[in-house]
Task: inverse folding
């Protein structure tokens, strides 16, 4: 029986058929170049915008399609299945940055930034992590001090996805005293901002096409009306409200990666022979793939239910945390076992499974480490 995601529609079927063809024809041939240069070309962002693949769940008035998160999920799945080099950047841009602006921005802010993000003219990033602050966002030290009609921002951020390309960066900064109530979200526009400096495009063990950067703020400026929300001190609450969608986005990508790994490995073991017969005819190979196919299906059904919950406005933090930790854990395990079934070829970078293996590992760390996910779940017991 062919499984169909509960949130799929005929309209989405038509979109996805064309989108997959576009990804395979226009983007996938450039993936190797992007991995080498550690960055996706700006032309790819514009092409994705023209396809309607950026900000699909943002209203049409702001350049989006006016669709639900189901469109975002479809876009992420197809990108991960065809050209995974683009997944992380698009997820941050469309599913995270855009929705902070949509949910907390003023009408002027939404009209100023979202259409350019939807077209791919602007690339968005969000700067949370600092050299000494990861999961503990209440310990953020970057400051934003009000001076006249501007904020003057000082501090350092690291591990920032889209950091090299970003035209606007949502900065988690301290506008008040210590703790959660002192945090605000301020949008920094990077063009012509002399106090803003991009550091290194960091060398990572995986996600080689995704630019990940250090960012420096040395008296960087932002107009006072670039604050997200009506008043200072709401940043931590805003972050907590948006994290379920961020974590579900990671789970969506994890499921697509698991399914791809099983598919590629099944094809490989049907063709590769040992001792005179295909590897898939060995019981160990067949059992391992049977286990991983089953777990991928379990993940698929759970994540599909979470997508429905999010579309209905009912996805809670605990459930999103469950989806993030379990799916990312199974993604890592699946990539590892599928690489093993490729033998020595699995260790060669020219084989997709090798890249999937190293790319998967970060999924257990960013978006909140899996240890933090378990802590959040445990608090609900």
Result:
């Amino acid at each position: 029986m062919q499984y169909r995601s509960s949130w799929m529609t005929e309209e989405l079927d038509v979109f996805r058929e064309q989108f997959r063809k576009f990804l395979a024809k226009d983007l996938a041939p450039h993936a190797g170049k992007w991995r080498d240069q550690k960055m996706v070309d700006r032309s790819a962002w514009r092409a994705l915008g023209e396809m309607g693949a950026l900000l699909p769940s943002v209203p049409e008035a702001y350049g989006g399609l006016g669709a639900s998160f189901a469109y975002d999920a479809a876009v992420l799945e197809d990108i991960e299945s065809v050209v995974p080099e683009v997944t992380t950047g698009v997820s941050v841009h469309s599913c995270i940055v855009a929705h902070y602006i949509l949910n907390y921005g003023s009408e002027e802010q939404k009209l100023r930034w979202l259409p350019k993000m939807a077209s791919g003219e602007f690339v968005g990033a969000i700067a949370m992590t600092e050299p000494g602050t990861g999961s503990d966002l209440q310990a953020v030290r970057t400051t934003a001090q009000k001076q006249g009609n501007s904020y003057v921002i000082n501090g350092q951020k690291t591990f920032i996805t889209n950091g090299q390309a970003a035209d606007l960066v949502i900065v988690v900064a301290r506008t008040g005293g210590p703790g959660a109530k002192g945090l605000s979200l301020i949008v920094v526009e990077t063009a012509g901002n002399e106090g803003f400096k991009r550091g290194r495009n960091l060398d990572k063990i995986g996600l080689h096409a995704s630019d990940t950067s250090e960012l420096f703020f040395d008296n960087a400026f932002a107009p006072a009306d670039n604050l997200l929300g009506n008043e200072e001190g709401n940043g931590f609450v805003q972050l907590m409200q948006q994290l379920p969608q961020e974590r579900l986005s990671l789970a969506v990508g994890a499921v697509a990666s698991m399914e791809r790994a099983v598919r590629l490995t099944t094809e490989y073991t049907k063709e590769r022979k040992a001792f005179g017969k295909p590897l898939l005819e060995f019981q160990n190979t067949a059992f391992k793939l049977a286990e991983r196919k089953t777990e991928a299906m379990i993940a698929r059904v759970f994540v599909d239910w979470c997508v429905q919950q999010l579309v209905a406005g009912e996805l809670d933090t605990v459930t999103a945390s469950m989806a993030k930790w379990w799916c990312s854990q199974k993604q890592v395990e699946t990539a590892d076992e599928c690489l093993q079934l490729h033998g020595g070829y699995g260790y060669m970078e020219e084989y997709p499974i090798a890249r999937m293996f190293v790319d998967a590992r970060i999924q257990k760390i960013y978006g909140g480490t899996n240890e933090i996910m378990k802590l959040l779940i445990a608090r609900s017991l």
